[in-house]
Amino acid sequence: MQNKKYSYTWYWIHFTLCSQFQDMKITVIKESDMDNWAYYLRIFQATPFISDLWLKSFRNPNREPIFFRFVSQEKTIGIIGGLIIKSSYRILKKTDKSIFFFSSPVVINSDKEIIKACIKELTDYAALNRYTVLEFRS
After folding, report:
1. Is the dihedral of CA 106, 111, 115, 121 positive or negative?
2. C-alpha separations of 135 from 42, 43, 63, 77, 80 in Å
3. Residues in a beta bridge with 19
4. pLDDT of res. 83
5. N or C: which end of the chain has fewer CB within 10 A?
C-alpha cells in the first residue's frame, strides 16, 4: 500500500478594489499584541480557526502564525489570522513562502465587498513581502 500525498489547489486571488475602500491599510499584529488580538476576536465574533491558540498549535520551524488587522479610515473593519509556510527544502527556504488561512477574512456585517477589498490588500501585502502563494480554506 502506497502513502498517498494530498495535493492542494493553490489559488491566486485578484479582486477589483471598491472605490469606497481605496484608503484601506493593512496592519500586521505581532504576537506581543495578543491581548489586542483577543479583543478583536470578541468584537468580530470570529471563528476559533483564527485564534492565537489554534494557530500556535501548528507552529514548527516551517510554520509561523501571522495575524492581520484591516483598517479603513482609522477603524478596524476586519481581521484574519493564518500561518506562514516555509519550504522544507533548504535551497527554497528564502524564496518559497506562502500564507495559509483556515478561513476568509472576518469583517463587519460579513460584507462581501469588504471581504474582496481585504483579500485585495492581502495580495498586495503578499507581493510586497515576497510571499509566493495565499491559500484560503473554509
Report:
1. negative
2. 24, 25, 14, 21, 12
3. none
4. 94
5. N
In tens, the pLDDT along 63-121 reads 999 999 888 877 888 999 999 998 777 777 677 789 999 999 999 888 898 898 888 88
pLDDT at 125: 87
Q: pTM value?
A: 0.74
How many angstroms separate the Cα of 90 from the Cα of each of 83, 100, 126, 129, 133? Answer: 19, 20, 21, 20, 18
What is the three-state SS of the chain?
CCCCCCCCCCCCCCCCCCHHHCCCEEEEECHHHHHHHHHHHHHCCCCHHHCHHHHHCCCECCEEEEEEEEEECCEEEEEEEEEEEECCCHHHCCCCEEEEECCCCEEHHHCHHHHHHHHHHHHHHHHHCCCCEEEECC
Q: Which residues of 65-76 are buried (b: 16+ CB within 10 A; e: fewer)?
A: bbbbbbbbeeeb
77 close to 70: Cβ distance less than 8 angstroms: yes
